[in-house]
Amino acid sequence: MRGWSLYAFLFLFSSVGFAVKSQDFKTCSQSGFCRRGRALAERAKDAGDAWKSPYSVDPSSLTVSPDRASFMAAVESSLYPSIKFSLELRVHDDGVVRVRMDEVDGLHKRYDETASWVLPKEPTISRDLLWTANNTAISLGYSRGKHDDVDVVVTYNPLTIVMSKNGKPQIMINGRGLLHMEHYRSKDTPAVEGSDNAQAVLDTAGSRAWFEGDKEEDFWEEKFKSWTDKKPKGPESLSLDIDFPESQRLYGIPQHATRLDLPTTTGEEAVYSDPYRLYNADVFEYSASSPMSLYGSIPVLYAHHYDGTVGVFNAIGSETWIDVYHPSPRSSQTHWISESGILDVFLLPGPNPEDVLAQYGRLAGTQSLPPLWSLGYHQCRWNYVSSDDIRAVQSRFDAEDIPLDVLWLDIEYAEEHKYFMWDHKTFPDPVDMVNDLSAYGRKLVAIIDPHLKRTDDFPVYKEAQEKGVLVKSKNGESDYEGWCWSGSSSWLDMFNPKSWEWWRRLFAIDPPKQPEGWHWTQSTKDIHVWNDMNEPSIFNGPEITMEKDAVHYGGWEHRDVHNINGMLFANQTFKALEARMSPPERPFVLTRSFFAGSQRFGAMWTGDNLGTWEHMAVGIKMVLANGLGGFSFAGSDVGGFFGNPEPEMLVRWYQVGAFMPFFRAHAHIDTKRREPYLLDDPYKSIIRDTIRLRYAMLPVWYTAFWKASATGMPVLRPQFVMFPGEKNGFGIDDQFYVGDSILVKPVTEEGADETQVYLGEDEHYYDYFTYTMYRGAHEGRLITVPAALDQIPVFIRGGTIVPTRERHRRSVSLTKRDPFTLRVALDHQGHANGTLYLDDGDSYDYHEGGFIWREFAAKRVKTTITLSNNDHGARKPGEAVAGVDFQTYSPGNEFAQSAANVRVEKVVVLGLTGKPVSVTLGGVELAWEYTPGYGWLERQDGGKASVLTIKDPKVPIAKYWEIVITL
Ligand code: NOJ
């Protein structure tokens, strides 16, 4: 216990300097397999044209499957003729190509289950393929469809796999010959078996090419600080070059605190000296610019140029490093070095950002549609210390008229950090406390971490131990033990299917469905869950995580599944919360650690950031990158986790937070309280207005979330996604679009009173608050806009219609019957369009068509603009809108009927060319007023748009109507 106390002390209070303890985490040169992988790349580079990959396909082994959608072939390496590999290519019906390679009959089995944790279902296989084989290669083309200009060629010797479009290579695997599937071997196996080609490789490379040095250092045992990784199965790594000869920019592979357009890691002008690392870890106080690992990993990468986008998803759950380089301004190279597992790579053919994002979404699943309340404002800190504290915070929010949806409890609610167990000294009446929140439509989120205190008076631990669902230590015999908040702890092994049902039962609400066993007493359906520390964070483990030779279900080592581990914990929590209600309600689960697939189950945040301007800025880029990784529901701790931000910084941070998909303020236990009501004016009022703005714009957010869940398009869209052909905007990552209508440039600089905004299209932009007009350009242009502390640069894109709800309410659920305002921002031809998605916000009825979908249109014909609210339920059943099948949708559904009285209370039309002669609904004149200003015909940079305000037209939001504006 003494050891633990000292550790806790160091952990909590050594953070005064606020800098990442980089010495706690490996660099590539401290990791044997990464060093070997990089050394291989160096040798290949030095050898130049003389370098030849030793891997080749045995053409006589080629078999195309009877359905012609895949082929298998044997692969060998001339360095190790006795080792056999298998190669498989499969083609999905959306053009995605899956490449798998594994060792055949190896000394041990390589981990091959990563994709099965990621893919919600087996993809449909293509039926439209043409295969042609000759002496040197086998190629496949698509006989028809969207990808008939794409082909994939597998060259036998050396083995390369190239996806081309119109004959131009787009994705190239092993083009540089860095493929190396380091096979399992015993210590006495020679490093190189010897053959002509092996000798050639060795000769040209000038040394033992496939090993870093003369001695096999770090192969069989590896030390880092005081830890030794015994590597019971010996070395096993995978090196793979994936190049993009036609792509200028690379995006993706979250999570890293860096630019969206990934900076280089090799070459003379490399921005970083280490590769990007994917190895989920508790890197608190992380640097605001670094390729270091953070809490989550999504191994998906997009390569973009103005005439096309392609992508790769590398389904690998072990530690992975990725080098990034641009050999020329128009091409990109990547080198992936992983510690273990098979090769399982999906090639995404594009051809544009929307397509690659949809292709990835079809593979890994899309963002789950969150409960509507979870898009409201969340107030957290470590810790609200008692139930009365929670009540007091809620009443202060109400007293100050600041909207609030969720209050949070960090680890101190739980007696001795035994999660699920209320500390009754401070939380004597948990159910009453939650009911006091529920009375205002609010929720509580309580933390549940994966470490279980090893004590007999913790039933969760006892049951897990008895059921055998804890991770095992390296010999697989005893339960793994380490240190975390709860002192000596063990960790749940969610790879074990036996844990799933059991975990579900723990969350049962009284009376539990299954009678036997323990469950979370004193819980209600309004408690949702925060899964933290699930990398897992282990204070006395190497790199603050689990030893790689710890053992999971199925005998797999932790090294094989490390990056997947956190996802499984949070996903099972989500399923457990879902199961507590029948019919189920949408749960909310926040996870710190994540992997490809986590997006199907909740939200993430960017972990322990600092209260600095740099962190405020990089948080935006991280959230954008996460969205590209399919995981849109993301945000950073508003205010910064560490430190005590000055009021100005706090205000700016709220302005950022209100435009992040997940909007939560959080703070470290050592920080001063900083709830918005504690500030003086003007700061308090500005924050109140900012939170109210978030609530007003919830229809925009919810519609964007629905589109993300339906199509894979991120909720926050970066510049290159919005304007794939406009190359000057590719590097822009400090501004973004919410959905497709709202452009935001949060201010992240101290003392700013103006800022620059990039407009990447030749279109009008209207300041959201003042209706000042600006005009962009095809090749993009910067405008300067005012940005004093009470001003957030938010713009409506010309040509869009934005639905909002502007009544001030205490929480989201109280807005459900509120009327709408429509802002119609005319484009430079006098047209506009917008969409609205609406449902009950809690249930899954939307799966059965229980929702409202509207398409608003302002259509100009000469001097008449017709504004209509259209019903696409009238379309043919099965017809897809925005990628969504409307088969189950019927305009008369129950939810739509329940919203029949919800009306539009105001319509604001921006950019008319003059005062209307009439504004009518069904031939009857409406009440309106007009403020002259600039119209859609004029180019403006700072003048006010004309504003037509139609007052309470009393038209329903859910029914067809037409308002005719005659000029
Ligand atoms: C680490 C998390 O990142 C932080 O948000 C939380 O407050 C602490 N753990 C305590 O639970």
Descriptive report:
This protein has three domains: 33-183 and 233-364, glycosyl hydrolase (family 31) (Immunoglobulin-like, Sandwich), CATH 2.60.40.1760; 372-449 and 496-535 and 564-716, TIM Barrel; 718-966, Golgi alpha-mannosidase II (Immunoglobulin-like), CATH 2.60.40.1180. The N and C termini lie far apart (80 Å). α6 (387-399) packs parallel to α7 and α9 (498-506) packs across α10 (558-579). It has 967 residues and is an alpha+beta fold. It contains 16 helices and 52 strands. The strands form ten sheets. Strands 5, 6, 7, 8, 9, 10, 13, 15, 18 and 19 form a ten-stranded antiparallel β-sheet that branches. Mean pLDDT is 93; it is low at 1-16 and 204-209. It is globular. The structure holds 1-deoxynojirimycin. The site of 1-deoxynojirimycin (NOJ) has 10 residues, from loops. The site of 1-deoxynojirimycin has 10 residues, from loops.
